[in-house]
Amino acid sequence: MSSSNEIRATFLDYFARNGHTVVASSPLVPRNDPTLLFTNSGMVQFKNVFTGQEKRPYVRAASAQKCVRAGGKHNDLDNVGYTARHHTFFEMLGNFSFGDYFKEQAIAYAWELLTRDFALPKDRLLVTVYAEDEEAALYWKKIAGFPDSRIIRIATSDNFWRMGDTGPCGPCSEIFYDHGPEIPGGPPGSPDADGDRFIEIWNLVFMQFEEGPPGVRVPLPKPSIDTGMGLERFAAILQGKHDNYDTDTLRAIILASAEATGHEPDGRFKVSHRVIADHLRAAAFLIADGVLPSNEGRGYVLRRIMRRAMRHAHMMGVEDPLMHRLVPVLVRQMGGAYPELVRAEPLITETLKLEEGRFRTLLVRGLHLLAEETAKLGAGQPLPGEVAFRLYDTYGFPLDLTQDALRAEGRAVDVAGFEAAMAEQRRRARAAWAGSGEAATEGVWFDIKEKAGATEFLGYTTETAEAEI
Ligand code: ATP
Ligand code: MG
Ligand code: MG
Ligand code: MG
């Protein structure tokens, strides 16, 4: 059985042997890119290379990139613990060609690596192509020997990638693995494609056009390749599992969480263990890259992730802070590949401990209030927005924590009501200040309040600039 560390190394070695320069992961906080909340794919660090603004001494690269998808355009937070394939933090393996090889070679590399080096059974694999991309379909036939039934044509934007409103773009081809008929879910493009039977493992993006003003698209003289494969999804296959959370790295954290809480890993608190394992990784890697919990921007996303995990620990009846006790297991699993984790271990431990210690009293009181309030409601009746706001304002419950807490009983939150309560509080704050004769400082104070009160980081306005591989 290959460990995740071995799989990562095999992937990078394969592309190194094929003339690619192995480039280290860039930090989770993108350098020089204020439009992006967190690095969410392998191509982020190469954006300017693809557009031609920046030159590198190589035209082929490969990387294992740390990614977080917990805000902005890509937000998988609500899937965590519930699907077999989503994390907030994951590793994306990728190979890149900057105007060097293109479609046919990219497909050939992917196919050879999957079926020869990793020896995946061919009859478990199938692919999607963009409906208009006959070329890609032809190469899949030629290289993989796929019949038409294993090449699914998709006409939606799912198979057409864009860097932003303008700039490089092109069709993509996604490789799926069929985990077998015992698992619910249909093939890509079918109505029940959202199930976990057919899991997307690798996305190949063929950057072949340059988009200018709306409707104007010209072929790039030197098309490029950008690919992304989820290490955890791939490890699941190679380790004979269906679920990412049963692979070595995550399983080790889940077992540590089970031991620390005294609750079976796959028993009543299965979801909680999974959420804790995922959120621990995300929190630890974010802290290692310089993010600290706060009430705005990236720090608030980190705080939300940490507090969500803490609620799950609390549900399991844990009295003392839990998260920081799981850090050594994570560092043992991933510190070899990511030395920054080893360097930051003391900071990660302290930050988790402090946040959990501080939040605990509020969490307990807030959950008590929540139970009281929901007891007054009929089955399926949403929680009034005003209550969700009180939890937010007085008890430090991010909105998504309240939503997560109510998910098990199938109850929603009146989000419009929550927002109205927030707006009302701001209005009152503004009115109170207006009469105080301190007009000069009011603007500043209000700015801070505005930011501190933000429930959701919405990106620095231009989310379209987010890369989507
Ligand atoms: P999905 O449709 O399953 O949500 P995606 O199309 O959003 O995946 P891409 O943006 O194409 O994913 O990212 C490239 C690869 O990264 C995917 O093929 C998958 O293997 C992996 N990946 C994407 N999102 C996640 C996630 N939240 N957790 C783990 N792996 C992921
Ligand atoms: Mg997705
Ligand atoms: Mg997809
Ligand atoms: Mg995809």
UniProtKB/TrEMBL annotation:
Keywords: Aminoacyl-tRNA synthetase, ATP-binding, Coiled coil, Cytoplasm, Ligase, Metal-binding, Nucleotide-binding, Protein biosynthesis, RNA-binding, tRNA-binding, Zinc. The keyword RNA-binding applies. Its main location: cytoplasm. Residues 2-469 form the Alanyl-transfer RNA synthetases family profile domain. Its cofactor is Zn(2+). It catalyses: tRNA(Ala) + L-alanine + ATP = L-alanyl-tRNA(Ala) + AMP + diphosphate. It is found in: Cytoplasm. The keyword Metal-binding applies. GO terms for molecular function: alanine-tRNA ligase activity. Binds 1 zinc ion per subunit. Catalyzes the attachment of alanine to tRNA(Ala) in a two-step reaction: alanine is first activated by ATP to form Ala-AMP and then transferred to the acceptor end of tRNA(Ala). Also edits incorrectly charged Ser-tRNA(Ala) and Gly-tRNA(Ala) via its editing domain. Belongs to the class-II aminoacyl-tRNA synthetase family. This is Alanine--tRNA ligase. It comes from Caldovatus aquaticus. The gene is alaS. The chain holds residues 1 to 469 of 882 of the full protein.
